[in-house]
Amino acid sequence: MRIFQGIIEIAGQMGTLTGALKKMGHTAAGYNTFHSYLGYQKHLFNTDAATIRDNFKQILNFYDIFHFHYGTTIFPDYRDLKILRKKGKRIIMHHWGNDVRFHDLARLNNPYVYTGDSPPNKKINRKLKVLSKYIPEAIVQDYEVLPYVKPYYKKVHVLPLAVDLRRFKPFYPDIQKKRPLILHAPTNPEFKGTAYIEAAINSLKNKYDFDYRRIEKMANNQVISLYQEADIIVDQILCGSYGLLSVESMALGKPVITYIRPDLVNTFPGDLPVVSANPDNIYDAIQMLLEQPVLRYMLGVMGRRYVKRHHASKVVVKKLISIYKGLQTGGK
């Protein structure tokens, strides 16, 4: 298969999937127009939208599968979708959360959720109607995102986040360590619930001896080297599901605190080892891990196993290839 992915890289996923597809013997390329301090480079053409549009004819003729991300396609008015369908190309849209998170729907099952990064409901609705007119199937990372797009597409696949485990050597917490390190790395503090996390940490400093480090605006490769030193990693406590930081942390053998909505617990594999916490009980969750070094170690070991089973790129890409093979060609 010849696979085009574009045009916005989210959390390194486009590059990770492209690399895994190449390892499976497919021709794949990721075209990224979103450039940030995270510095994703591998398996990507970091370019701009105008350059991709200028090369649309060659791209159209070469690739047979078009895997778009974050509600974007090659042209801002989506004119490429009609052309792709007419040419018999297989198309799928990968939604990631903030691009489709309807504000009112998100709050139905989650009083903590932050949706300030999402467009207005009317804009999301309008975009999804246009996209699903030409794209019959979509992908989401979990069942938190699923309800936002399910009414629009003929079929929606749940594909877990992917990591290349070769980049993540486990560094399990040392149970003898007297002064554990808590790490938090918010790309968006409001979305992650950083204010609640740091309020709890400041209170805990009155009772416990530990270090805390907040990491921001650093390239992904640099951040991963810092994760290795952590004994506890706190991810996001508002959204209701776990993100890439949780997956990478578990891959490194670290215990993770993140919020899993009660109604979503059973949608994840039963061996998910994260400590679930929200603003109401984040203090208790951190306190528990500070007091139990053996538990920190055990969760780290379980987390590494969990990622190997469910998030390793070679596992995820096999599911993705199956999705590709089932895509329709031609009109919806």
Overview of this structure, please?
The protein has helices spanning 13-23, 49-54, 56-62, 79-86, 103-108, 121-134, 146-149, 189-192, 194-204, 220-227, 244-251, 282-291, 293-310, 313-326; strands at residues 2-7, 27-32, 44-46, 65-69, 90-94, 137-140, 155-158, 181-184, 211-214, 232-234, 256-258, 275-276. The protein is α/β, with parallel strands linked by helices. The chain has 2 domains: 2-162 and 313-326, Glycogen Phosphorylase B (Rossmann fold, 3-Layer(aba) Sandwich), CATH 3.40.50.2000; 165-310, 3-Layer(aba) Sandwich (Rossmann fold). The strands form 2 sheets. The chain has a 7-stranded parallel sheet with strand order 3-2-1-4-5-6-7, with helices on both faces. Helix 4 links the parallel strand 4 (65-69) and strand 5 (90-94). Helix 1 crosses helix 14, helix 9 (194-204) packs across helix 12 and helix 11 (244-251) crosses helix 13 (293-310). The longest helix has 18 residues, at 293-310. The model has no long low-confidence stretch (mean pLDDT 93).
